[in-house]
Write a structure and sequence with these properties.
Length: 583
């Protein structure tokens, strides 16, 4: 994604060097301190870069700051405020009050020091390259570091295995042991003379205090007020006549459209991904007609689903499984209308309680619960870090899954689209996580707010996840199993007819989902592509994980072994394509 690149080195590189030119976006600023340090900022259409410079400091913010300590602010003034608070030693206090998703870099001209900061939830990525405890560089994209001529590549095998088994990285992991993602809510200081660095935390989830005094009805009303403010804060920063929204059959994008209609005075255009006739397409069209906006269906099928995904792997530095790049093919079309995208990121989590474990799991220890998701890779999730301390497990999952997996999806689009994520507004999240878990469980609070304040959008239009409208009486959050499918699976599972039966089932039953990777990966042409890419004797993943492992995984996948999910094949392809291009 676009953003910040900095190198601490005697060798100053031109902007045309691959370690700088391959970073997404267009150059907004580039400067160097000859023989010591160089820095470059790249942006999307000039959006979300804020700069301040005087005789003492240079400050660059990449991202958005919407409010400070609950009060809306002018984004163009934040960089100077950061500079002033840094000079009086109050940077940590200020950062704890900044509401938005950002990274920033301060270059102290007098002290010869670089200071890096990440946002409260670590949504905007920033990576640090360090060898032997000496900082060498930092960047919003790992490739900027990995392509530096002084960089020596060290593959992190533990991280690679995590990516293949879990489907995404955990904690600070990247594919390289000497490049790590900076922690959320952190400030890292680097002495450019000694290369020594240290990191401090300015906020943790323990700072959210429990609120048991508020009634459910009061909580519903206050949640609406905060949500509406979060959307309005984002929309105020739009500097183009059109706003884009990716609209599905879910709840999050629908309520964003409803809220945007109240606050955005320009044109709203929506985009839906999938096959014609799938639930998402049908429901999104209903909602778009109700809102009076134009909706475009972006077809994803067995013929075009892979288009552009090899480049998508490069854009996300091999950190996003290529099977989850659904929106990539439409980026240029959306960007032709608007570079601003309203994103329903983690609405089902913060509002809907979808990460809350079932009641029968609460008797287990936290590590036992999280291990059900991450298996032997649990230590990499850093669950004992004080940052995650809270009354439930959500903070661990918000970062390890929400940021490291789902968030990489918006990173994928960020070379042309600037994403707004109002469900992660600091004030809204702090309020929701101060409430009893039971308010959010099974979407109770969320559904109550939607039905009370946006009834036209939710009372009669179905939710894709269940196939029926939400209600205050129902606690259903999962679809009922289709008996036809269950019987079909039982009859043909493991037989030579299974592949044919899967395709037949998709043709004769309603299309609930917009992708069918289990079928598409097994089409003859793509089967050849997988074998030629992964099973070649010179494949990078074979060199790292061994011939026997790769051949076994691929063989079992095509033999319909349920233990080998499409995501594992996608993970292996992702790593292979990234490492090959990095050479």
């Amino acid at each position: 994604m676009p953003g910040i690149v900095g190198f601490i080195s005697k060798n100053i590189l031109p902007d045309t060097h691959p370690c700088l030119s391959e970073v997404a976006g267009k150059v907004a600023s580039s400067w160097c301190l000859e023989g010591q340090y160089q820095q470059l900022i790249k942006t999307t259409a000039g959006i979300a870069h804020h700069h301040f410079n005087n005789q003492n400091l240079s400050v660059d913010i990449w991202g958005d700051v919407y409010s400070i300590n609950g009060t809306d602010c002018q984004q163009d003034e934040v960089a100077e405020l950061v500079a002033n608070q840094y000079l009086i030693g109050n940077l940590s206090e200020l950062c704890s009050q900044l509401n938005g998703y950002f990274t920033f870099v301060i270059f102290d001209k007098q002290a010869q020091k670089v200071t890096l900061a990440t946002d409260r939830f670590g949504i905007k990525p920033l990576y640090l390259w360090a060898d032997n405890l000496e900082a060498k560089g930092f960047a919003s994209e790992p490739k900027a570091l990995a392509l530096n001529p002084d960089y020596v590549q060290h593959i992190d095998l533990a991280a690679l295995k995590t990516f293949v088994d879990v489907g995404h990285m955990l904690g600070e992991q990247t594919l390289f042991s000497n490049i790590k993602r900076l922690a959320p809510a952190s400030i890292t200081s680097i002495d450019i003379t000694s290369l020594e660095y240290d990191t401090v935390r300015y906020w943790s989830w323990a700072d959210i205090k429990t609120n048991n005094a508020m009634t459910f009805d009061e909580a519903t009303a206050h949640a609406y007020t905060l949500f509406d403010s979060a959307v309005e804060r984002c929309i105020k920063t739009v500097k183009q006549p059109t706003l884009a929204i990716t609209l599905s059959g879910g709840l999050d994008s629908r309520v964003l459209l409803a809220a945007a209609k109240q606050h955005f005075k320009g044109t709203i255009k929506t985009y839906t991904f999938g096959e014609a006739g799938c639930d998402d397409a049908v429901l999104a069209e209903q909602v778009a007609q109700l809102a009076g906006v134009s909706n475009q269906l972006v077809s994803i099928d067995e013929h075009n689903w892979f288009d552009g995904r090899e480049h998508g792997v490069w854009l996300t530095d091999g950190l996003k499984n290529m099977l989850h790049m659904h929106a990539l093919s439409s980026v240029s079309n959306i960007a032709a209308d608007s570079n601003y995208l309203l994103n329903g990121y983690l609405g089902d989590v913060t509002f809907g309680g979808s990460y809350l474990f079932a009641q029968d799991k609460l008797s287990l220890s936290q590590s036992q619960r999280i291990a059900e998701r991450y298996f032997e890779h649990l230590p990499n999730a850093n669950i004992t870090d004080a940052y995650f301390e809270h009354t439930n497990d959500d903070p661990i999952l918000i970062y390890n899954r929400g940021v490291r997996f789902i968030g990489a999806g918006s990173d994928l689009l960020s070379h042309e689209l600037h994403n707004f994520k109002p469900f992660m507004d600091n004030d809204l999240v702090a309020f929701l996580y101060s409430l009893p878990d039971e308010y959010r469980r099974n979407g109770k609070l969320y559904h109550a707010m939607l039905l009370r304040y946006y009834p036209d959008y939710f009372k009669t239009i179905a939710w894709q996840q269940t196939g029926k409208p939400i209600s205050l009486q129902s606690t259903d959050v999962e679809p009922v199993n289709n008996p036809l499918k269950q019987r079909l699976v039982g009859l043909i599972k493991g037989s030579v007819f299974e592949r044919f039966a899967r395709k037949l089932y998709r043709r004769i039953t309603p299309k609930r989902h917009y992708v069918a990777y289990d079928t598409w990966l097994r089409e003859a042409n793509f089967k050849r592509y997988i074998k030629n890419t992964l099973c070649d004797s010179n494949s990078e993943v074979k060199k790292l994980l061994g011939d026997e492992y790769i051949d076994n995984v691929v063989t079992r996948f095509f033999a319909m072994d349920d233990a080998i999910k499409p995501e594992k094949i996608g993970s292996l392809l992702t790593v292979e394509l990234y490492l090959k291009r990095l050479q």
